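testing teh design pipeline on a random one, pls ignore if ur not involved
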């Protein structure tokens, strides 16, 4: 008997969805664009690309799934707003108040976050690659290390180094961050800095009693020595040259970084 009652209601939910859950209130969108005052507004999935919302009051607003790509939200009051799954790709959030904001699954790639207030801000599964001014308070050392590894994999070595720096400020004993920063510095031509990081990685791995880490650090040091002293490359590499060294260490590098 219960099954017969439940089926019609299930079908009713399919053919008559609650539209207000999935769409913004157009009047609220117009209000926001006209006055920049829209606290507690329903802006779900609103299209606000390139919108000038500098200093806007969006406290408690529902911006779930909204498209705010490249919008200007500098100095905006977003306290308690819900930006789950929102696109903030390239948006300017400098000085914005993001206290208690939900940014779960949001796209913050290349967003400007300098001086933004991140207190009790939820950024679970947010895309943060290339975000500028990302405060260390919203992630762990391992989080920043992973962001750096992703940037390095994409060839963005300067950004990768910034993330590794943040990781090491949070955890000076994160050996993998020294190792990864060494590789990024080497790819940018800073072989002296790369060597210093490779040696730091080896020291920390020794402190952590990780023979595998020490071994891979030794191979990186050997590779860097060959690049720093090209006239001695053949002797240092045992006849295989620098290419041979890189090929030999590559599988372990991939396991360490990714």
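output:
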């Amino acid at each position: 008997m219960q099954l017969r009652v439940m089926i019609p209601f299930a079908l009713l939910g399919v053919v008559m969805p609650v539209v207000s859950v999935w769409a913004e209130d157009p009047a609220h969108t117009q209000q926001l664009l006209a006055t920049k005052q829209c606290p507690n507004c329903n802006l779900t999935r609103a299209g606000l690309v390139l919108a000038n919302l500098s200093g806007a009051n969006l406290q408690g607003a529902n911006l779930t799934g909204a498209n705010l790509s490249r919008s200007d939200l500098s100095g905006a009051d977003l306290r308690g707003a819900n930006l789950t799954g929102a696109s903030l790709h390239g948006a300017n959030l400098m000085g914005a108040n993001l206290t208690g904001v939900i940014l779960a699954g949001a796209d913050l790639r290349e967003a400007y976050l300098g001086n933004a207030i991140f207190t009790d801000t939820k950024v679970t599964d947010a895309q943060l690659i290339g975000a500028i001014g990302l405060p260390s308070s919203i992630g762990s050392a391992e989080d920043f290390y992973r962001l750096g590894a992703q940037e390095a994999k994409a060839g963005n070595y300067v950004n990768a180094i910034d993330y590794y720096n943040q990781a090491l400020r949070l955890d000076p004993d994160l050996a993998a961050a020294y190792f990864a920063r060494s590789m990024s510095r080497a790819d940018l031509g800073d072989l002296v800095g790369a060597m210093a990081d490779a040696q730091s990685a080896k020291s920390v791995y020794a402190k952590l009693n990780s023979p595998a880490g020490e071994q891979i650090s030794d191979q990186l040091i050997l590779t860097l020595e060959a690049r720093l002293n090209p006239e001695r490359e053949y002797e240092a590499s045992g006849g295989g040259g620098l290419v041979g060294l890189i090929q030999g260490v590559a599988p372990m590098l991939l396991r360490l970084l990714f």
